[in-house]
Specification:
The chain has about 450 residues and is an alpha/beta fold. The chain has helices spanning about 1-25, 40-55, 105-115, 120-125, 165-175, 235-245, 250-260, 285-290, 330-340, 345-375, 385-390, 400-410, 430-435, 440-455, 455-460; strands at about 25-30, 65, 140-145, 150, 150-155, 160, 180-185, 205-210, 220-225, 230, 265, 270, 275, 315, 320. The chain is about 40% helix and about 15% strand. It folds into 2 domains: about 20-290, Rossmann fold, CATH 3.40.50.1460; about 360-460, no CATH class. About 45% of the residues are buried. It has 15 helices and 15 strands. Belongs to the peptidase C13 family.
């Protein structure tokens, strides 16, 4: 009799588990934060991710894709209407649905979409928009690719999403019971700073990032025909792994190990990180990257891998031109085009040289300006030296000051446009360190004083 009761209990448990899987939904939010042709990689990875989610049976109504959508028809694109994620790869643009495009791709819209705020989206963009309308039984997968800086992930035109705002939104979702479990993949420089010391471990959220708090992510896949980098080490690693894997068997931790290996390229090393509830990494990928009842293991037809483990083919000013840091992609792109410019006219080569000289000047001036700014802000030092501020790797403790400093600097120095020149963002760590140790008024006054002296701040 006991045996019969035991068997019956197992049957009932199996039924409950089936109901649980079928009652919950899978949601995916995909974000490409860049615009402009030299940022090809961002929309290439996001379009690949969109197709991967669709191929894994997640219905289109449960996928939200935010991308500027200027890449496929950019005048520099030699094949109009075409986006690839590896050289000679399949065209990913057809069927790559983008729910928010152009000026709608902002941190404010992203946060409303993530938290399921339909009315908030409508107020921001003036129309109905798709949101992550998830509930307590649902699994949510978020992937974001673009440039980043300490404590920030960037959207088009150097509009920053701050780590505090992202984590506040995640905590809000937890309070409102808007998910069962959630996974985030963030592919940007300094991406670890979006979560380290901020993301709680007890709200059923697990995240991986392509880098730690203070280092760059890296590019891959230079396309000699398109003259652009069409992928990232971290982004390409996970989408191609998902395309090939049996998602019912492969775990989140196993995929994390795949990404770690891909990012460990000689001369271009970043260190992917894990945050949040690490016990979740034993779960299988199917929980987040597929609709369990529709997914069938197999190789995705969109998949065509490239070897992104090549050593440096060229270098310029210490930059690896095969796998450059994400924030160095404008310099690396122009330098590589110049090196491979045998078929270009002399006039075009001179244009590239002039563009490269200007970017190197901006890089130099941004570094010099930051040193002067730190010196001015520390006229009344508070226990730290200028070297401490310039070299420290602190987390954001005074987010109000940091946000205000970034806003004032951007307004006062449009010549160092950090949207156009992402390499200048490397100096933002000094802003964080200053705000953590100096009065906000001292920091703001220093920005006013120093930017007035630099001609490049007024040069557009």
């Amino acid at each position: 009799m006991a045996l019969r009761h035991g068997a019956l209990s197992l049957v009932l448990l199996a039924v409950v588990l089936v109901v649980r899987v079928e009652s919950g939904k899978n949601w995916a939010l995909i974000v490409a934060g860049s615009k402009d042709y030299y940022n090809y990689f961002s929309q290439a990875v996001s379009c690949h991710a969109y197709h991967t989610m669709r191929n894994n049976s997640i219905p289109p109504e449960n996928i939200v894709h935010m991308a500027y959508d200027d890449l496929a028809h950019d005048p520099e694109n030699p094949v109009q209407g075409n986006i690839v994620n590896v050289p000679e790869g399949p065209n990913l643009y057809p069927g790559c649905k983008m729910d928010y495009r152009k000026k709608e791709v902002t941190p404010e819209v992203f946060l409303k979409v993530l938290t399921g705020d339909k009315e908030g989206v409508k107020k921001l963009i003036g129309r109905e928009g798709k949101v992550v309308d998830s509930g307590p039984d649902d699994h949510v997968f978020v992937t974001m690719v673009d440039h980043g800086g300490p404590g920030v992930f960037y959207f088009p035109d150097f509009v920053e999403l701050h780590n505090t705002d992202l984590n506040n939104a995640l905590k809000q979702m937890h309070r409102e019971n808007r998910y069962k479990e959630m996974v985030l993949y963030v592919d940007s420089c300094n991406s670890g700073s979006m979560f380290e010391g901020i993301l709680p471990k007890n709200i059923n959220i697990y995240s991986t990032t392509c880098a730690n708090t203070h280092e760059s992510g890296y590019m891959c896949c230079w396309d000699e025909f398109r003259l652009s980098f069409v992928g990232t080490q971290y982004g390409n690693a996970w989408v191609y792994d998902t395309d090939k894997a049996n998602l019912h068997k492969k775990t989140l931790y196993q995929q994390y190990e795949v990404m770690k290996k891909a990012c460990n390229v000689s001369g271009s090393v970043s260190h992917p990180q894990q945050y949040g509830n690490l016990s979740m990494n034993s779960q299988v990928l199917a929980q987040y990257q597929s609709k369990a009842e529709g997914y069938q293991p197999g190789v995705c037809l969109n998949t065509l891998e490239a070897d992104n483990t090549l050593g440096s083919k060229f270098t310029f000013a210490g930059i690896d031109l095969n796998n450059p840091a994400i924030d160095m992609v404008p310099i690396a792109t122009v330098a590589r085009r110049l090196i491979e410019s045998r078929d270009l006219s002399g006039e075009k080569r001179e244009e590239l040289k002039a563009e490269l000289r200007h970017m190197m000047l901006v890089k130099e001036k941004a570094e010099s300006l930051t040193k002067d700014l730190v010196k001015a802000a520390m006229s009344s030092p508070r226990g730290l030296t200028e070297i401490d501020i310039l070299t420290g790797k602190e987390r954001v403790f005074n987010s109000e000051c940091y946000k205000a400093a970034l806003g004032l600097f951007s307004a006062r120095c449009p010549g160092i446009n950090m949207g156009r020149y992402p390499f200048a963002r490397r100096n933002l760590q000094a802003f964080i360190n200053l705000c953590n140790h100096q009065r906000q008024t001292d920091v703001m006054n220093a920005i006013m004083e120093v930017t007035e002296k630099y001609g490049i701040c007024r040069a557009l």
